[in-house]
Amino acid sequence: MALQQIFDGERDPIKWLLARGGWIVGFLSVVLLSACGGEAPPGGGGDGGPQEGSIERWVTSSSDDAEERESGGVNRTSTDLELIFDPDEGEGQLVGMRFLDMRVPQGAVITRAYVQFTAKEASAEETTLAIQAEAADDAMPFDTREGKLSVRNRTGAAAFWSPEAWEGAGDADGLQRTPDLSGVIQEVVDRPGWVAGNALAILISGSGRRVAMSFDGDETAAPQLHVEYDRTLPRESVTIVAAGDIACDPESEHFNDGLGTRGSCHMKAVADLVLGMGVDAVLPLGDIQYEDGTYEKFLKSYDPSWGRFKDITYPAVGNHEYLTSGAAGYFRYFGEAAGDPSKGYYSFDLGRWHFVVLNSQCAKVGGCKSFSPQGKWLAADLEANNSKCTLAYWHIPRFSSGEHGDHEEYAALWDILYAADADVVLVGHDHNYERFAPQDPSGAYDPIRGMRQFVVGTGGKSVRAITALKPNSEVFDGSGFGVLRLTLHPDRYEWGFVSEAGNSFIDSGSDSCH
Questions:
Q1: What is the mean pLDDT of residues 268-289?
Q2: What pLDDT sits at residue 323?
Q3: Of 308, 290, 293, 304, nearest to 253 (Cα)?
């Protein structure tokens, strides 16, 4: 008998099979793929896996979907998943779903991904959801102990969803399907420790209310993760992380053997975020070693934390490094990677992008005007650049809503970059995270040619609150530490701020190069 005859009248044949007892997942995949003329994925994953394909997995146990209330309590046996407000508890919550046996090869290009829900009841409130994955090689089952869901590290990549009204119980169509999650899944399968067949967890936060079926509500209508991938596509994209204002002085009262205290010296915890990301480059944005950047302090504080990525690090010098004459400790520690010690500015190419590293300590290198040595070098470097996309970074921001504010001193450098159609600027100095809309040299909004600036002074030293919000500031956060993760494609880029565990702040988006 043909499989289509067996499944006639059923909305989803795989769910039909899963609802029947005695099925083993591996056997199920063989039956279905053979029936469709395909080939079952091999066990164990790795390079022997298929070159392209798709996979669907459901939540299959009570320990694989969970809700954590704002007050910290975790529930794994609810008959529904409240996205996000639970009126019975009178508070919002974080929702987690874990999918087993994700046989997606490490490093495969994710071409499409989504979660399909089934509505448990009608709901029409205005709702905005942020969807991330757990930044883990192999997601563990959810724990019922208080706060154990929210402490899981999340991907920098996120997808935002404002679902239309859900009209009735049992609906499972496009209205109950998330937007594309390919960037979110990509970050997980790019991790060095990811292996095909591992478990992957999706975490959803936000505001509003939609009510989906959980495993304990109806195991045949539990959330489903669909992923499509291709290993034949060229990998022309690169991933970088960036942050400044990083390592505490080892003589600080907050140093605590490199582990820091509640609000200071989080350089190791922030560096730990980067360990499993599988990034191609790390960009420290100045003030890398407090208080004065001596070589000995680099060895005691920066090296055991961020120094773990030294072989893929491209640093920018900050003002604190120059508290040691000539920033000698900085240039000795990083060596050739820091460029000529008499300049502190240099450029390089990575993937299809051109990177320009500038020295914001203008008085140390003959100024930052267009006619200065640095200004002339920058103009010549950009003139010779053939890349479509350009990213520049230095320490002190041209524009900032943080404690130190704007700095006109870098206007000429911004002019030169703008004239060359540069795309992104990264800076630190103010101990907060801030994203600006694309701006021209005067600070006016310019969506056509403007450069988007990120202030990322959240690398570990300390964080500070906003002072006065500047024009075109789109996002500001001074509540916690983290790194900016950028995936750089040949003609566009995606960003995501990855917060330290326990901090719920996220920022994510994408844009095209000029």
A1: 94
A2: 98
A3: 290
pLDDT for 199: 97
Buried-state track 145-168, b at ≥16 Cβ within 10 A, e below 16: eeebbbebbbbbbbbebebeebee
For 257-272, write each residue's pLDDT tens digit. Answer: 999 999 999 999 999 9
Sequence-ordered alpha helix ranges (H) in 166-294: 182-189, 267-275
Q: Among candidates 461, 456, 458, which has minimal Cα distance to 480?
A: 458
Does residue 277 come out as left (phi exceeding 0), alpha (psi in the -120 to 50 range) or beta?
alpha
pLDDT tens string 355-377:
999 999 999 999 999 999 999 99
What pLDDT score was predicted for residue 20?
39
Q: How far apart are CA 425 and CA 423, in angstroms?
A: 7
- At 44, the pLDDT band (50, 70, 90 cuts) reads very low
Report d(CA 510, CA 423) in Å as an integer: 12
Token pair recorded at residue 273: 């975020």
- Give the distance from CA 199 to its chain's centroid: 19
CA–CA dist 330, 340 (Å, integer): 12
* 67 within 8 A of 75, measured Cβ to Cβ: yes
Nearest 5°: the CA angle 183, 153, 256 is: 140
**Do 346 and 316 meet the contact criterion of CB atoms below 8 Å apart?**
no
What tokens appear for 364 in the block? 């140390």
pTM: 0.78
**Given pLDDT bands bounded at 50, 70 and 90, which one contains residue 483?**
very high
Q: Does residue 33 surpass a pLDDT of 80?
A: no
Cα distance between residue 489 and residue 487, in whole Å: 6
Sign of CA dihedral 249, 254, 257, 263: negative
The SS3 call for residue 473 is strand
What type of residue sits at position 268? K
Q: Which helix (H) or strand (E) holds 5?
A: helix 3-7
Q: Which helix (H) or strand (E) holds 3?
A: helix 3-7
Residues 186 and 156: beta-carbon distance below 8 Å: no
Tens digits of per-residue pLDDT, 370-418? Answer: 999 999 999 999 999 999 999 999 999 999 999 999 999 999 999 999 9
- Write the CA distances from 500 to 12, 154, 370, 428, integer angstroms: 40, 9, 39, 17
pLDDT score for 49: 54
- The answer to whether 54 and 108 are in contact (CB under 8 A) is no
Distance CA 451, CA 447 (A): 8
Would you tell me the crossing angle of helices 373-383 and 411-419 to the nearest 10 degrees? 10
What residues pair up with 218 in beta bridges, in sequence order? none
Cross-strand partners of 390: 354
Per the CB < 8 A criterion, the answer to whether 269 and 461 are in contact is no
Token pair for 125: 């409130």
DSSP single-letter state for residue 511: E
DSSP letter assigned to residue 75: E
Give me the domains of the chain, ranges plus CATH numbers: 46-230 (2.60.120), 238-512 (3.60.21.10)
